[in-house]
Please model this.
Amino acid sequence: MILRVKVRPGARLSALAPGGDGVWFAQLKSPPVDGKANAELIRLLAGHFKCARSAVRIKAGAGARMKLVQIDK
Model:
């Protein structure tokens, strides 16, 4: 499954919510420095979809707020 995720790093709480048009919204506590926000996003998605972290990959947009994420179940 491939998801489009819009990320907001530096938030107070980490949260994941579905949005309109198939876009998911992720609020992350981690700052966008040294891949910390991407690592937190992977942990958050793996926990939400109950899969291993190794099954979650950022396919596009690793340095952007809009990301394409692939989840292998």
